[in-house]
Amino acid sequence: MSVTNERIFLSPPHLGEEERKLLLDAFASNWIAPLGEHVDAFEQEIAERVGARGAVALSSGTAGLHLALRLLGAGPTDTVFCSTLTFVASVNPVLYVGATPVLIDSEPQTWNMSPAALERALQEAAAQNRLPKAVIVVHLYGQSAGMEPINRLCARYEVPVIEDAAEALGATYRGKACGTWGRFGVYSFNGNKIITTSGGGMLVSDDLAALEKARSWAAQAREPVPYYQHSELGYNYRLSNLLAAVGRGQLRVLAERVAARRAIFQRYQAALAKLPGISPMPESADGVSTRWLSVFTIDEAVCGCNAEAVITALALANIEARRVWKPMHQQPLYRECRYYPHDDTLSVSDRLFAQGICLPSGSSLTEAQQTRVIAAVAECLGLKQEGGSHALL
Ligand SMILES: *Cc1c(COP(=O)(O)O)cnc(C)c1O
Hints:
Elements: H1 17-28, H2 37-50, E1 54-58, H3 61-71, E2 79-83, H4 92-96, E3 100-104, H5 115-127, E4 134-138, H6 147-156, E5 161-164, E6 172-173, E7 176-177, E8 184-188, E9 201-205, H7 208-218, H8 241-252, H9 254-272, E10 278-280, E11 287-288, E12 294-298, H10 300-303, H11 307-316, E13 322-323, E14 338-340, H12 348-355, E15 356-359, H13 367-386
Parallel strand pairs: 2-3, 2-4, 3-14, 4-5, 5-8
Antiparallel strand pairs: 1-9, 6-7, 6-11, 8-9, 10-12, 12-15, 13-15
Protein name: Pyridoxal phosphate-dependent aminotransferase EpsN
Keywords: Aminotransferase, Pyridoxal phosphate, Transferase
Organism: Brevibacillus fulvus
C-alpha cells in the first residue's frame, strides 16, 4: 500500500520530548505507584492554568464526574439535569449514584445546553418541589456552553453546576476557562483528548474542603491513622505518578495543541465552505473553542447524501470520521428519561445527530493528510451532485 493511503485517525495521541523526559524522570525515581510528586505538581499546574483554587488528579474524567455528584450529595431519590448531546460518560455517573437523569436539549448557537429548555425544566421541577441535585453542563467538542445564562438560571433555583469540560481544556468563555464557571469542573486526559496521559482526569474547584474529600474518596477513603481504617466508601480513582508526569509534559504544549486544532478547523472550513449543504459547527462569540474535533453538518436535501454516506466514503479512503454523539434521549439506556427539547417544535440535538460528521482533527495531522480528507469529502459530495465530476476541487 502506498504511503499516501496511510490510515488517518480521528484524534490520535500527540506526544513529544517534554513528556518523554518527565516520564523517564518519574521512572528513574522508582516512584511509579499512585501518587508522588508529579501528581502533586500536575494538580497544581492544572489549577494554575485554568484559574481554579485546587485540583485532584484522577484515573479518568468519568471518575471526576462521579466524585462531583457524590460531593453534592446526589443519591437515589434525586434527579440530575444533563446535556443530552454528549458522550455517555457525562450521564453514566448519575446512575452510579442511583439518581435519575433528566435530559436537556442543545441550543442552535453553541450546540450545548439550551438555556430555554433548562429554564422550562427548572420551572417544572420547582413547581413539583423536585429541583435537581445538580446540573451537568457539557462543553461539546471544546466549545463553551452559554455559562452566563445557565449559571444565572441555576443560581435562581440554587442548583449547583458541574461542568463536563472533558473536551474543553484550553477553551474559554468570556475570557475565563471552561471548567471554572460551575461548582466543579472536570477534564479528561483520555487518549483521544486534546492532551492525554493515555487515561486520566482532573476535578477542579474553588472549594478546597470538597476537593480534600474527593482526594480521600479517590484513594479508598483510607483514614490518616497508622493502620487501615475506613469509615466511608471510597474508590480506586487516583492517577499514577507516571501518568501525571506525561500529563505535565502535555500541559506545557497545550496552547500549541489547541492552536493546531483550530488551524485544522480553519483549513477545513476554507475548503469545504465552497460545497453547498455543508456547514461548520458555529463558534459562539462568547468563547474560544478548542475545536477538539472539526465538526460539520451535511444537509442531505442539498448534498444528495447524508452523514453516514460521507463517513463510509471516507472509510474507503482509509480515513476515520465519526458521527456526532447520539443524544442520550435516543439511547436504549436512557430512553425512559424525561427530555426537554429546545422548544416545542425543535429538537436541536436530533438534527445535529442526523446531520453531523466529525473529521480527523488530531493536532499532529499534516497538511498533506488534511488535503486528502478534504479531497475525499469533496469527491463524495461532488460525485453525488455532478455525476462523477470533480469540479468542486
Ligand atoms: C471523554 C469524555 C468523558 C470521559 O472522560 P474519560 O476520561 O474517558 O473518563 C466525559 N465526557 C465527555 C464529553 C467526554 O468527551
